[in-house]
């Protein structure tokens, strides 16, 4: 099995995990509200936390899905910014990156 096949399997497993997490978060956000004002305030705070977790999960899921699409389109090995090959070690550590290390450093700094 090649490194890229292994990464694809990892990404597919991560995609399933994130989809399940997102489903649980959505289910948790739809709980009935209390009649007590103090409990309602606490529920709103909890909903904000659940929303933030949902947004982070969705963001990560989108990155994973993009990486899987890049693999299917045979674009995975190449930087989306400069077109150079992304180092296999970088892909192993950050499997849903689409930037080589040079572009990542350049664009973040």
UniProtKB/TrEMBL annotation:
This is TraR/DksA family transcriptional regulator. GO terms for molecular function: zinc ion binding. InterPro entries: DksA-like_N, Znf_DskA_TraR, Znf_DskA_TraR_CS. Residues 9-71 form the DnaK suppressor protein-like N-terminal domain. It holds the Pfam family DksA-like_N. It comes from Spartinivicinus marinus. Residues 1-28 form a coiled coil. Keywords: Coiled coil, Metal-binding, Zinc, Zinc-finger. Residues 76-105 form the Zinc finger DksA/TraR C4-type domain. A zinc finger (dksA C4-type) spans 79-103.
């Amino acid at each position: 099995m090649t490194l890229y096949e292994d990464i694809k399997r990892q990404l597919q497993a991560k995609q399933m995990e994130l989809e399940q997490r997102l489903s649980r978060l959505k289910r948790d956000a739809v709980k009935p509200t209390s009649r007590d004002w103090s409990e309602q305030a606490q529920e709103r705070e909890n909903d904000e936390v659940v929303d933030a977790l949902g947004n982070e999960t969705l963001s990560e899921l989108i990155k994973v899905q993009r990486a899987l699409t890049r693999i299917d389109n045979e674009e995975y090995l190449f930087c989306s910014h400069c077109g150079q090959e992304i180092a296999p070690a970088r892909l192993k550590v950050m499997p849903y990156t689409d930037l080589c290390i040079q572009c990542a450093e350049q664009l973040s700094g």
